[in-house]
From TrEMBL:
Identification of the protein by name: Phosphate:Na+ symporter
Membrane topology: Multi-pass membrane protein
Residue segments, region Disordered: 374-393
InterPro entries reported for this sequence: Na/Pi_transpt (IPR003841)
Domain of life: Bacteria
An example molecular function term from Gene Ontology annotations: sodium:phosphate symporter activity
GO cellular component terms, semicolon-separated: plasma membrane
Organism: Ectothiorhodosinus mongolicus
Subcellular location: Cell membrane
Record NCBIfam families: Na_Pi_symport
Length: 571
């Protein structure tokens, strides 16, 4: 009796150890390959082209490297939300990335235990003697160690699972699963939700099938369940993402359901009507059951793409309807620059010039909420609107939405300029690009300073009563900055020499005036402490705004002559 218990304990230990090594190995592969390629992967994703071949290659490579569709979609969501990747270009990448995750499943189907043992030993030595403990070599060593641990864990798991096939309870459970395929489907989905990887769950199913614990039809349903688990898991991870981010997560779920819509009917027709289809085709191949299951996983990923491809336009419209982009996301899209425009440096510089002018024209709107009289805001938020998909419109954006959208466009423009400066530019183009880069830095600084000064003025206004004398100072600062920004937008649009000279005069040094205002604030009786602190900060920030506006105005040259380059980018 004690011998049976010891044998059972040994079996359990092998299974637990194998599963642990398997999961650690997969985690090592995922984390270190992503560290090895993360920045490059992000750059490639953000530069994805409309070319189907390039998109397919990028998606396959991204899926093979990331080995976790959850992680990859979260990366793409961050790029889409930041405006670095268009959602419509991200969707086909997801299709091919799912297929790319098949690489690990296919490798795991091979019997390379001896090679895995050598790999663990060699990478262990390299890991021990890696004095740098950082850099690309370190990540590569850890990724190789993860591959070795994965296969070592898989061999332990297979060895431990073999005796399970002979236990009456296990035989009864899997017999029930074979009769009621829904159980296998649900187990596959739940495990995928827990482990965040359909490939990992498929590898576990391969090990169980190799040990005789699971037959092919049950394993196939197990694989189908991983698809639903992957889709639901991605949706749960991205549930709080607004607009475009949620579209990508919903697309992953629709993609997996599309594959099931094709394969599930074929499966049940074969099982219950005896028509030879998927299972018969797999069994005809001279392959072991692990390779048959790996092939099922690949077929499922391909089926998803085959079904969804003819419907992709309808799917895009459906996603826009069910998860429309937010106002901030719509406003945060550049009007002029677009991916690939940097290839023609002359027109690209004109596009940057136009994009910067468009950003500057938006800056006066930041003060709309503060510019008020007794009757309320001078520009009521609902009085203007902006178009959104499907012909509906947004209300006037809040200051925070407008600031975030402007910051997003500024970031995209800065990246675009960096790509331009990283290429080969003629001397004249290089000089202009450097001027635009300096202007972009000043513009980013002005946007940040305006956000801070408006916060301080808002706090000061809230702390002061309507009849308070200091309230006029708040309104004077607001109106002055608003007027200066309107003048700056005229300069940005026309680059008129008289406007530039006027703005230079208006933004001359005002340090003595600001100091006298601060002295008056100190001498003012009954001024709330919170209002005094905010007004002190606001006057200092006001001086910085003047300096930045003056610096920006001096950077403008006569308008770029190539008007054809100034057409807004197609949305």
């Amino acid at each position: 009796m004690s011998g049976n218990w010891l044998q059972l304990l040994e079996v359990a230990a092998l299974i637990v150890a194998g599963l642990g090594l398997l999961l650690v190995g997969i985690r090592q592969i995922n984390e270190n390959l992503r560290q090895l390629a993360d920045l490059r992967l992000r750059r490639l994703l953000s530069q994805a082209t409309e070319s189907h071949r390039a998109t397919a290659g990028l998606g396959l490579a991204a899926g093979a490297v990331a080995q976790s569709i959850h992680a990859l979609i979260l990366i793409m969501i961050s790029l889409v939300t930041a405006g670095a990747l268009d959602a419509k270009r991200a969707i086909p990448i997801i299709n091919f990335a799912n297929i790319g995750t098949s690489l690990l499943v296919l490798i795991a189907a091979l019997d390379i235990r001896v090679a895995a043992l050598f790999l663990v030993g060699l990478t262990g030595l390299l890991y021990y003697f890696d004095s740098e403990n950082s850099g690309r070599r370190h990540y590569l060593i850890r990724a190789l160690l993860g591959i070795g641990l994965l296969f070592l864990g898989l061999s332990f798991f297979k060895e431990g699972a073999k005796p399970l096939a002979e236990l009456p309870l296990v035989m009864e459970i899997f017999s029930l699963s074979a009769q009621h395929f829904l159980i296998a489907f649900v187990v596959g989905a739940v495990l995928t939700l827990v482990l965040h990887s359909g490939a990992t769950v498929t590898i576990i199913a391969m090990a169980l099938a190799f040990s005789g614990v699971m037959d092919l039809p049950t394993a196939v349903m197990f694989v189908f369940g991983t698809g639903v688990g992957t889709g639901l898991g991605t949706l749960l991870l991205a549930f709080n993402q607004p607009g475009l981010g949620r579209q990508l997560a919903l697309y992953q779920l629709l993609l997996k359901l599309a594959g099931l819509a094709l394969l599930l009917p074929l499966f049940f027709i074969e099982v219950y009507l005896g028509v030879p289809l998927l299972l018969s085709g797999l069994q005809l191949l001279p392959l072991g059951i692990t390779l048959q299951i790996a092939l099922t996983y690949i077929i499922y990923q391909l089926a998803c793409d085959v079904v969804i491809h003819p419907l992709h336009h309808r799917v895009e419209h459906f996603l826009e309807y069910i998860a429309p982009p937010t106002q901030e996301q719509v406003m945060g899209q550049p009007r002029f620059i677009y991916a690939g425009a940097e290839k023609d440096s002359a027109s690209a510089l004109a596009l940057v010039n136009a994009e910067q002018a468009g950003l500057i024209e938006r800056l006066p709107q930041l003060f709309d909420e503060l510019r008020s009289d007794d009757s309320g805001p001078a520009l009521a938020p609902a009085s203007r609107s902006q178009e959104r998909p499907h012909g509906t419109s947004f209300a006037m954006p809040t200051r925070r939405e407008l600031h975030n959208a402007n910051a997003q466009i500024a970031g995209i423009t800065d990246d675009f300029l960096a790509a331009l400066l990283g290429g080969q530019l003629a001397a004249q183009s290089l000089e202009q690009a450097i001027i635009l880069k300096g202007r972009q830095q000043s513009l980013a600084g002005l946007m940040e300073t305006l956000d801070q000064v408006i916060d301080e003025l808002d706090r000061a206004g809230a702390a002061l009563g309507k009849e308070d004398a200091a309230q006029s100072l708040v309104q004077n600062l607001v109106e002055t900055l608003h007027m200066l920004l309107l003048t700056l937008s005229d300069v940005a649009r026309d680059a008129d020499a008289m406007d530039v000279a006027l703005l230079q005069g208006l933004t001359a040094d005002r340090s003595e005036l600001m100091e006298s205002i601060r002295q008056r604030l100190l001498n003012t009786q009954n001024l709330p402490i919170a209002a005094r602190e905010s007004l002190f900060a606001a006057t200092s920030l006001f001086e910085r705004c003047l300096w930045l506006i003056r610096r920006l105005s001096s950077s403008f040259t006569p308008a770029v002559e190539d008007d054809s380059a100034l057409e807004p980018a197609a949305s």
